[in-house]
Structure formats: C-alpha cells, structure tokens
Design brief:
Elements: H1 2-25, H2 38-50, H3 53-73, H4 79-103, H5 107-140, H6 143-149, H7 154-182, H8 190-217, H9 221-237, H10 250-258, H11 260-273, H12 278-305
C-alpha cells in the first residue's frame, strides 16, 4: 500500500519540480509589463518596426477618423482655422492697405493682391503651432499613454495628427481666399493658385514636425505656445509677408533674404498674380524637405521614448 501511494505521487512531484525550475530559469523582467518602462519602450519600438505598411495605413486612417470625430464633438477647436484668416485679412487690408498700397503704386487694391498670398504662407505657421499645443495636451491628459499601450504603429499617431492639421490648414486657406475675393483679390491663374496652396501645405506640414517635437519635449501647452510665438513673430514680421522689404534696414533685408517665409510668400505671389517664381519655389521646397528630413526622425524618437 505504501509502495503504490509512492508510485502515484512521484509524477506529480516531478511535474511540480519542473514547474519550479522553469520559473527560476525564465523569470519575467522587472518593468516588462509597463509600457512606460525601458523594457516596455524597447519592445514597443521593436513591435512598431514589425508592423507592415498596410497596417500602418489602416491605423493612421482609424486615428484620422478619431481626430475628426473629436473635432465634431468640440467645434470650438476649429475657431482658429475659421477666424484667423478672416481677422487677419480684414485687419491688414483695412488698417495697412492704404499706406502700404501706395508704396506698391496702386493703393488698397494693390495691397490686396500683395497680402493674400502672404497670409497664405502665414496660415501654415499658425496651424503648425496648434499641432504642438494639441499634442502636448494629449500627453498631459493621458491620451497618448493610451495610444502607446495599443498594438498600433507609433508613427501612425503622428501622421494622423499631421493629416488632420493639413485638412484644417486647407479649410483656413479656403476661407482666406473667399475673404480675399470679397475684399477685391483677383484670381486670374487657377493652376498657379492650386500650386501655391500645395506649396504652402508642404511647408506647413514640415513645420509641424518642429512643433510636435516641442509638444513632446516641453512640460505644458503654455510653454509650447510661448516658444512658438518667440519663433513665429520674428519670422513673420521679418519677411515679405506683410510689406515689401526694400524699405527695411540692410541687416533686416539680409535676414529676410534667407527667411523661408519670404521665399514661400514670394513664390505664392508669383504663382497667383504673376512674377518670378523659380528661385523662391525651389528654395521653399528645399527648406520643406530639409526640415522634414531632420525633424521627423527627432519627433518620432521623442514620442517613442517619452516616459
């Protein structure tokens, strides 16, 4: 009897011993289950690299839809895209149009033809700054932690955000053109108009990578907005967006000559109302490609490694 009992219990003891041995030799690493820990971050990055392109596109489209639904639930988030082009167009045309238009040799009507393409360049920068503040708010409210815990491509979150902001930029540009026509802007070259819009979108989407990086790196949305204004104000007013540069001091003219906003505004004017285009066009494209090539990897890396 004792011998039979011993034979029956031997397999069970052997199984328990094997289980204990396995548990000792294959322990779970500390922090592996945490998406915010170093192991979780590295595993998420590795998983991201294994996601095929079709899945990335599917994830991006789903996140684009999510962002559009959020805008639908919060219409106030479209105030900047709707009101900025109206306010800035009316402000500059009716406050500065008479005096600056005289220097252009045609009064207010001449200034309308000058300012509308310039404001198109400015819209891209304003929308780009909104990307950074919105991205930072998503981090602080925990939305990004939720995204990073899901089995989706990390880059899909960024590309979806940019896609929606590009759509907002197109809406702002359309409103700008409608208001411009109402105050006297003449559209005589439709292919040039579409080319100018595409150029502004290209440059604006490149700037978004800079502000996404700021949104990830800085602690709160107010800091991102303050840093954005410190960058935007000198670039906007130290350019040919609002006024010709010939009357500016020599040192400021040197700055405006290398300012990418001047290249974008002058290229848009050449495409929409006539004038030299080639040099400013290629400079704007080069700036856009260069900014994207440098800042997109930085933004994606910051997003993946932010704890």
């Amino acid at each position: 009897m004792s011998s039979a009992t011993s034979e029956k219990t031997t397999p069970t003891a052997t199984t328990a011993a094997k289980t204990a041995t396995t548990a000792k030799t294959d322990p779970a690493p500390a922090g592996a289950g945490s998406a915010g820990g170093p192991a979780g971050t590295s595993r998420a990055s590795a998983a991201d690299g294994r996601i095929p392109l079709r899945s990335h596109l599917r994830h991006t489209s789903a996140l684009v839809r999510r962002n559009l639904l959020w805008i639908r639930q919060d219409p106030e988030s479209m105030f900047d895209a709707v009101l900025f082009p109206i306010v800035f167009t009316l402000l500059f045309v009716y406050v500065f149009g008479g005096s600056i238009g005289q220097s252009l040799g045609g009064g207010q009507d001449a200034y309308v033809q000058y300012i509308v393409p310039g404001l198109m360049a400015m819209m891209g920068m304003n929308m780009a700054m909104g990307v950074g503040t919105g991205f930072n708010q998503d981090f602080n409210t925990g939305v990004m932690d939720r995204f990073r815990s899901l089995p989706i491509g990390r880059g899909s979150v960024l590309f979806a955000k940019i896609a929606v902001e590009v759509l907002r930029m197109l809406i702002a540009t359309a409103i700008l053109l409608v208001v411009g026509v109402l105050v006297g802007f003449d559209i005589t070259n439709w292919p040039g108009l579409f080319a100018a819009v595409g150029l502004a979108v290209l440059f604006g989407s490149a700037l978004m990578w800079i502000f996404i990086t700021l949104g990830v790196a800085m602690k709160n949305a107010q800091s991102v907005q303050a840093m954005g204004f410190l960058v935007l104000m000198p670039l906007q007013f130290g350019s040919s967006i609002f006024a010709p540069t010939q009357s500016m001091p020599g040192w400021l003219q040197t700055f405006t000559s290398v300012n990418p906003l001047s290249s974008l505004a002058d290229a848009a004017r050449g495409l929409m109302v006539g004038g030299p285009v080639a040099d400013d066009l290629w400079l704007t494209v080069a700036w856009s490609v260069g900014i994207t090539a440098v800042m997109a990897p930085v933004a994606i890396h910051k997003f993946r490694t932010k704890s």
